[in-house]
Amino acid sequence: RLRTEHSLEKLTRATAVKATVGRGGDFVEIPVDLLVVGDVVRVAEGEVVPADSRLLEAAWCEVDESSLTGESLPVAKDPEPVSGAAVGERSSMLYAGTTVVAGGALAVVVATGTATEAGRSVAGVGDPPPSGVEARLHTLTTATVPVTLLSGAAVGIMGYLRRRPLRESVGSGVSLMVAAVPEGLPLLATVAQQSAAHRLSQHEALVRNPRTIEALGRVDLLCFDKTGTLTEGRIGLQRVSDGFVDEAMDALGSGQRAVLAAALRASPPSGDGEVLTHATDQAVVKGAAAVGVTAGDGLGGWEPQDEQAFEPGRGFHAVLGRGRDESWVAIKGAPEAVLARCSAYRGPDGAGRPLDRRTRRRLDAEVERLAQQGLRVLAVGERRWTGADELEEDQLRDLEVLGFVALADLVRSTAAAAVRTLRRAGVDVAMITGDHPSTAEAIASELGILNGGRVLTGPDLERLGEADLDGAITDVTVFARVTPADKVRIVEAFQRVGRVVAMTGDGANDAPAIRLANAGVALGRRGTPAARAAADLVVTDDRIETIIDAIVEGRAMWARVRDALAILVGGNLGEVAFTLAGTAIAGRSPLNARQLLLVNLLTDMVPAMAIALQPPATTSPETLLHEGPEASLGAALARQIALRAATTAGGATAAWLVASVTGRPTRARTVGLVAVVGTQMGQTIVAGRRSPAVIASALASAGLLVPIIQVPPISRFFGCTPLGPVGWATAVGSASAATGASIVVPWVASRVLGSRSGGASATQGDEGSEGEGPQPLSRSFRDHFRLAV
Fold first, then answer.
1. pLDDT score recorded for residue 629
2. pLDDT at residue 171 tops 90
3. Secondary structure of 317-381 in HEC code, one letter for each residue
4. At 733, phi and psi to the nearest 5?
5. Catalytic hit among 52, 225, 486, 536
6. Phi, psi of 515 (to 5 degrees)
7. Considering only CA atoms, which of 131, 200, 135 is closest in space to residue 556?
8. pTM to 2 decimal places
9. Which of 505, 455, 670, 381 shows the shortest CA–CA distance to 118?
10. What pLDDT is attached to residue 788?
11. Is 78 an active-site residue?
């Protein structure tokens, strides 16, 4: 945890925001935490706003507020007051953590730290739901400890009834109780989670609390913020329309390519690697380059001569340039601003026609249709130029409208595949965003998130009480136009209906929901400090695949815990059964107290820890679908415990009986000790055969047993005797046969049961993942455990 916090601190320092503030009649740069209310700050293009501030002056200022409101497009700012508006519509305010994408501004600080909109989003949210792994292990202990205690009492009573000394009988019973209690369970869970957290840190995922791994393994619903998570947080060119037909970028016809060439001519020149100021211009230039369209297409070349730069009050950008034979002026901007300067339009056949009212209504309808798809629409126009080589705004009249270019936040190329992978792993996906419903629905459909579900907006959400929301939320997969408070209500509602929720986001508006979710995930590279501070898991490479890796680790952890628990509990119960059988036959425990403790030393903690530490054997979503707290610690665990207990008891009892017939009691006790250890080590190797660490730990334990048995002083201390070839062959042969049976018997049983029931038993056996759905572990495990015993 210290290493993780250190990494997060370095990330915070690397992304720390500085403020340019007025001090002593001049502007100086200071750390953000030194700002106070009343300071006058200056922000420019590319800078992060240091605190909530009221605008004093603005020069064509546009701000990316996606981290706060979820809006994917820049917002124009103006000092004119706005009364009673929502946060996303307060054009006279700048908010901490947002980014200036164009122009600049002078503003006075009105809130800092936790008093800002971003800071208040995190404050007041309670602690996330507690982890359930301790409760599950407590349930397991509750089920096994009574069996151990009763068995110890039975050993003592049977010895006493067979007229063994009271001290010996009580000592044997107490020794069995002490040796058979699985005292390593709490440490086992901690080590498994720490191991998974360490592996994730090597894949650009910082786990603030290892208990998050356990929560990730239980997640069945992943809520994504849209902007910057499912999308790249930057706009790109999506479609081009000639005013009648729009086409995607990978299928542009000749008319649409002509529109895009004119839009490129109407963009600011960007020679010598110069970075364009406006995101819309960048999108047009990159989109045209991607499909091979140049500014000179249709004109034989293009040489810019003069321009009228974009301003919020102007609403367009115009460029005067020369083609091969004559000069042209091209214009690109808001449809209402461009269409107002046009008197003609270019028809589908390429011929110019007068722009009458009917055509104007048709063009307006085309703009509205594209906008309803969540696209930002720019109109494109041009005409021949016969005036001077200088461009004046009032000369921009009688243009010919060519069509429209439509832009939107770019969807991550890997997002659709990630959503499919999550669904195959049994994790549902929902989108929660502050963006427009049309935008959210379009992207959700593209990624497969909508999936037949409904779209619910923030205003609709406000009208629903808790009970109504719980009923309505079950078939909603997209939430749009929501506030940070709405996101909290959504997460709470999902949790009330029994879902285990992970929330992923990068903005301050996501922070409250991230903190409240069962597993909160923040993107680290572009994420806000508020989101990182609220998260349990910080993905430093901003990749959705890394989030999936974390869920895989969480699911796989339950499988490793199951195998390790089977070693601890199954082995101990096998020792109990062996001791009970030996006492019933001979009237005394086959193993003394020191031998029982030696068995635990060699077979329990080290092999179990090696199993818990091993990496996932598979990352297949279909395989991991059947892992998790209910499936892994329900019927599957009960079967593994029963199999290990029966194998251990059978192998040890067989070896002890053979040695009892052929030699002295001390020799029989020693052979039984070797068989107990050998049987458990064989099964451990089978369970962790893919892990060199597991095999090494098992072989080390077996190797340590040899000098303990064969060195006389040590052997006498443990009540053993050195064994000859026959004794070792008896113990090793019995252990090998029992280990082989532990592999063959389940295979045969599955074939027999499968042929009788046509696979029905397999469905019943996977209780918690199929059939009627997961049952509470407290009931499921106890039922299976009693049947197994």
1. 61
2. no
3. EEEEEECCCCEEEEEEECHHHHHCCEEEEECCCCCEEECCHHHHHHHHHHHHHHHHCCCEEEEEE
4. -65, -45
5. 225
6. -70, -35
7. 200
8. 0.66
9. 505
10. 44
11. no
